[in-house]
Design goal:
Barwin-like endoglucanases, Alpha-Beta Plaits, 4 helices, 13 strands, about 230 residues
Length: about 230
Amino acid sequence: MRPYTIRGHNYRPTYVTLGQKMRGISSWYGPNFHGKRTSNGERYDMHAMTAAHKTWPMNTMLRVTNLENHRSVVVRINDRGPFVRGRIIDCSYEAGRRIGLDKRGIAKVEIEVIGFGGRVEPARRVRPTPKAPYPSTPPQRVPRPHLMRVKLSHFAIQLGAFGHYEGAKVYQRRYGSVDPRYKPRIKRTQEADGRVLYRVWLSGFRTQEEAEVFRSRHDLGSTFIVSE
């Protein structure tokens, strides 16, 4: 989870939660790296079910789904990358082959956190909703036009993390008027060591590329991008 720099870009690994998702472009890497050391010290095996991610924790288990053919595979993060604009994950050759990446080299995918420490968490049990008795009169549909105005955002820029709420409020006010399209908000998180941090996220970015352009234009080199 240590920050690192590649080609002048700073990357800060961030914790993720079970079920967290991200969409973007996936690629694969193989023979040129086979047998070399990965970022966590293992020997890269192009035939193993592994992958590289720039910021998510090592040994996180992911389900990678090719959104073009809907084939999916489970991989374990053991490396960092890919360091190509727009790409969110680099699958091993075997993992990429199973979802069809070997045909074109890249594809639009969705990745989902399904476990930690190299272990897939059991599926959450969902209790079936009990059937309600049939009403004497058919239910009336209530129009909800406000739903059409909801804008979903997928990415945010973490501007800072503070041990005290007051410090986070200062950053929230500072970046509140930078761009009306993006809104700073404070997210309270509890770290693995029990500490409480108040993270300031600038939310509203539709793609990772949009967030990266914003970071570059506003010289936010010490910040990093998170998936909401």
